[in-house]
Amino acid sequence: MNFKEKLFFEIQYFRIFYFFNRSKLLFLVLFRLTH
């Protein structure tokens, strides 16, 4: 695996991780509003 591929995978991983955390926060906010 070369440097460009490594960088690409790290960016993809970061995006997924960030999106997951953000959706989890959104879910908690919605849960608090509805309950």
TrEMBL record:
The lineage of its organism: Bacteria, Pseudomonadati, Thermodesulfobacteriota, Desulfobulbia, Desulfobulbales. It comes from Candidatus Electrothrix aarhusensis. This is Uncharacterized protein.
